[in-house]
Amino acid sequence: MRKTIIILFALLSAVAAVAWRSSHWGKVRLSVRFIGYTNASCGLRVGLLQVSNGSPFAVVRGRSPVVMFDSPILPIEYAPTGLCLLQPGGCEQVQTEPITNGLRWRLTVVGQRLGDDDCGITSESRVRRVVRWLQDHRIPVPDPSPHPRPQFSSDWIEP
Question: Angle at Cα 83 formed by Cα 82 and Cα 88, nearest 5°?
Answer without folding.
Answer: 140
